[in-house]
Every structure is written in C-alpha cells, then in structure tokens.
Amino acid sequence: MDKVAKIFSSRKIVTYHKVEQMNNLSKHFQLFDKNSIAVTVDDGDISFYNYMFPLLKQRNIPAILFIITELIDTNIPFWWDELVYLLGDAEGEKKVWEVKSWLNKDRVEYLEKLRELSDKPRLEQVQLTTEQLLEMQQAGVIIANHSHTHPMFDKCTAEELKQELQNSKAFFQKHGLNGYELLAYPNGNVNLLAEEIAKQEGIKYAFLFDHQLSDLSGNPYRISRLSVTDQISIGKMRFILSGFHSKLLPLRKKLYNMLKR
Ligand SMILES: [Zn+2]
Known about the structure:
This protein is α/β, with parallel strands linked by helices. The chain has one domain: Glycoside hydrolase/deacetylase (TIM Barrel).
C-alpha cells in the first residue's frame, strides 16, 4: 500500500461515478497527465468496466475503483436506484437525499417496506463480477473498498460500521483482491466514530468526496478528492484541475447566502 500512498501523494485525485458519455471521457483522459493525476471511481458501476477501464489502460493512468462488495456477482441494484425505481423519478430523487440523513437502520427498514408494498417486479442491475475485478487488478487498477452495502457512515452505529468493514474484508480476502485498506466513505460521509472504527478495522487511507485538492500531509483518513462527471466539458475540467473551482464554490455559496438575506 505504500506504493499507493506514493502515487497519490503527488497527484490531483478526480472522482467519477457512473459513465454515460464516452466521447467526453476520452477527451478528459487526453487532457490528463498520467504523472500528475489519478482517477478514482466510486460504486463500481458496470460502465467502469465497459467504458473507462479500456481508456485508462490505453493511457496508463493510475486508477482506483471503489466497490460495494455485497453487489459483486449479483443482480442487486444500487439502493438509491431502487428507491427511485420504486417511487418514480421526481419523488425518488428527493427521497434519496432525505434518507441519507436518517439513521442507517431506518433507511434499511424503509426500503424493505417499500419493496414489500410495491407491486412492481424486482429491479435488477448488471453488476461487476469477481472475474472482471481480477482482470482489472491484473491490469493495474487498484480494486478498493467502498463498504459492503453503502450505508452513510455518519449514520451508523459502531456495530454496523464494524460489520460493514468486516464483511467487505472477508470478500477482499476470499477473492484475492488487494485494496481493502483503501476506503472511500460512501457519499463521502464521515464522523469521528467512523474514522476510529476504520482505523481499528485496518483501513490505512480513507477518501472523502468534498471537491477539494488533496493534501496527503494531512489526515490519511480524510483525503480530499475533486468531484467530476463524464458530462464536464474540457474547459471546465481544466478549471477544476487548476484548483480554483473548489475555492470559488464556497465563495459563491457565501455570496448567495448574503444576497438572500
Ligand atoms: Zn458511493
């Protein structure tokens, strides 16, 4: 893992999720200098394997894929996609944000009840397989930890947090995947308890989702990342990589709040 630390200490770290537009993505990757940038991708959507992995490999750009271990080798959907499916787009999108602020237990129970009451057929999603993960690991992608079921870590009890990490650890060990010690907090949510449990459970580096440039001289359990999507234009991507975008955003919010008053 020290190799990883070395790679990431000197780079700008960008974070993608699901990929929908190949075209822009390949433009982004042409812009990226493989010696000064690292790509991280959260959730392990199948689009990573289909679209990003070939481009990353081609350009030799260092990458970490953070997976949700419960979903690998299954057809289980991401829970937020299932929520939108069950409630419909408008209500669903709103509800996803709302339930992220609930206690984890309440979110899980709510979703279970919703599933039971719905007469829609069960939503299925194609998820990555261990075979694909091993192929990518072989090619240099670091397969890392995004928890077992993607709860909000700041809404979990100590017991739930331990369970999440122990279950994902068992999965990593069973399949010979080597990035367990690198954790991206689901949704970037973290508090002191979550940080403490992560340490106890053998996590060495943990990543936020805060749209800031990283500073590895800081806390290794709070590593910043820049938030991007495949929809972003080249111009805006340049701006984000300059670091100014993340400085401007809070200013803009402050200004907005001042004007609102
Ligand atoms: Zn995530």
